[in-house]
Amino acid sequence: MPLRALTVFLVLGTFACGGPNEEASSPAPEPAIPEVVSLPERFPSELAGLRPLVGQYPRDIDLWNREPLAARLQALLGPQLADFLRNMEVQGPLLEEQGLLYATGNKQHSGGSDAAALVADLRRDALWIWLLVDGEAFVFADRDVEVELPADVRIVLENADMDLEPLDELEDAADEPGEAP
Q: Ramachandran region of residue 7, left (φ > 0), alpha (ψ -120 to 50) or beta?
């Protein structure tokens, strides 16, 4: 008798809940969206190996001669690599902002007319270089992707009297990666 009562109870409970084949009437709740999105620990870029060097000065760690950066700088800048190196004589440390490694500098005693900035986008595996040589600006990019500029780099450009409109024109004018406009 107790087994029969249990069976009746289970059958009635099943029908009371809508039957075994009936789907739930309310939709499933949407997954919660995280409030903070953290950057991945690993980036697809081969340049991500430079992350442990953040906070150090490029001259102290021979950054411009470290692979894979050295080969990519040479391929991207060609003969302008010498200008880049001169314009990084007075330099800030290698910094990181949201997956962007960057360094800025200027030629000693020529900050207003000779400066440089390097941005390595670890998410897109892209290098972006800005050179100011004798007051003339050049932008180099080794990938056909838009590279976000860290706030510090934007300040350097603004201080060099580069507002964003001419910068956009320079980026648009760079038809071939590795060539100055």
A: alpha
